[in-house]
Write a structure and sequence with these properties.
single chain; about 220 residues; alpha/beta; Rossmann fold; 2 domains; six-stranded parallel sheet; 9 helices; about 45% helix
Length: about 220
């Protein structure tokens, strides 16, 4: 059966994670907490992000602003964070909206003959603002709040199928995480494509690309 839709992860796949607002947030952590190594900060924060996202579904679902407040409060209680949490939250919001695209993303949208749907654990308002600023017109945006679940929960992928109107075998999902993108997509029958921008890797039974230019359909 032919592919009729492309599902595309947002953070790390479409937009860069090492960008000015992220570096500003890291510098603030270093100045206002016990964490002094950027790698240590990323490990602690991203570990907590993934933990909270994994728990956020169904009746326990919370939107990204509340998830962010929980992460910052965790750092207050466990990492000596003593800065202005409102300021940190605002910088974090800027990351969701203003993180720059990788160079291959806009050309990928422009040449694709298939509809592209953006999937993200970010909230719809921030994704819509980001798409407008970046002059991108996806066929649709599937946010965690629409599915009442965060990746890796398969509900967000099922919502993408519902929105796009395609069957699992008619879609591919491109993402940069094995646990949040490849595994849940595969679980419900969507063909996963793993994008590894930093280094060449091998993932058993899964197509791996370094850039979106390498995707062959």
């Amino acid at each position: 059966m032919s592919i009729k839709a492309i599902f595309l992860d947002y953070t790390g796949t479409m937009v860069q994670e090492d960008e000015p607002y992220t570096r500003e947030l890291l510098a603030y952590f270093i100045s206002h907490s016990d964490l002094k190594d950027p790698k240590e900060i990323l490990k602690v924060v991203w570990g907590k992000v993934k933990e909270i996202e994994a728990e956020s579904y169904g009746d326990a679902f919370v939107k990204i602003d509340e998830r962010t407040d929980r992460i910052l409060q965790y750092c207050v209680e466990n990492c000596g964070l003593n800065g202005d949490l409102s300021h940190m939250h605002e910088v974090w919001r800027k990351i969701w909206v203003h993180a720059p695209l990788f160079d291959d993303v806009k050309p990928f949208f422009e040449r694709s003959e298939l509809p592209i749907y953006v999937l993200s654990n970010d909230d719809l308002c921030y994704l819509e603002e980001s798409m407008k600023l970046k002059d991108l017109q996806p066929a649709g945006i599937i946010s965690s709040e629409m599915a009442n679940a965060c990746k890796p929960n398969k509900l967000i992928f099922e919502k993408a199928l519902e929105v796009s109107g395609v069957k699992p075998e008619e879609a591919i999902h491109i993402g940069d995480s094995i646990t949040s993108d490849v595994e849940p997509a595969k679980e419900i029958g969507i063909t996963p494509v793993y994008i590894s921008r930093k280094e060449a890797v091998s993932v058993g039974g899964v197509q791996v690309i370094r850039t979106l230019d390498e995707l062959g359909l």
